[in-house]
Amino acid sequence: MAAAGKALAELERRWEEIRAALGAVGELRPGALVSRYRPCGKPTCHCAQPGDPGHGPCWSLTRVVGGKTVTK
Questions:
Q1: Sorting pLDDT into bands at 50, 70 and 90, what band is 1?
Q2: Count of domains for the chain
Q3: Which residues touch 54 (CB under 8 Å, ≥6 apart)?
Q4: Cβ-contact 59, 31 below 8 angstroms
């Protein structure tokens, strides 16, 4: 039982560290920021080769504005 008590105390200590770190983050904005790699469509471009990730990253921000989903 002593090992279980130590493990629990360590988890509680770590939980307090995480809570303190989250409290220091500051203002957050709702939404999702995603990076994408896409092919351009030109058959002679490197992005048309198998295994090539494509051009990018192209960043997209998706959020809700006035009840509608908006992506920029």
A1: low
A2: 1
A3: 37, 38, 39, 40, 47
A4: no
**Sequence letter at residue 70:** V
Q: How would you classify residue 45: left for phi > 0, otherwise alpha for psi between -120 and 50, otherwise beta?
A: beta
Cα dihedral angle (13, 19, 23, 29), rounded to 10 degrees?
A: 150
- Best CA proximity match to 33, nearest among 3, 50, 57: 57
Residue 69, SS3 per DSSP: strand
Domain membership of residue 45 as a residue range:
2-71
Residue type, 48: A
Q: Which of 44, 47, 50, 49 is nearest to 36 (CA)?
A: 47
DSSP symbol at 18:
H
- The pTM score is 0.46
Residue keyed to tokens 């409290």: 23
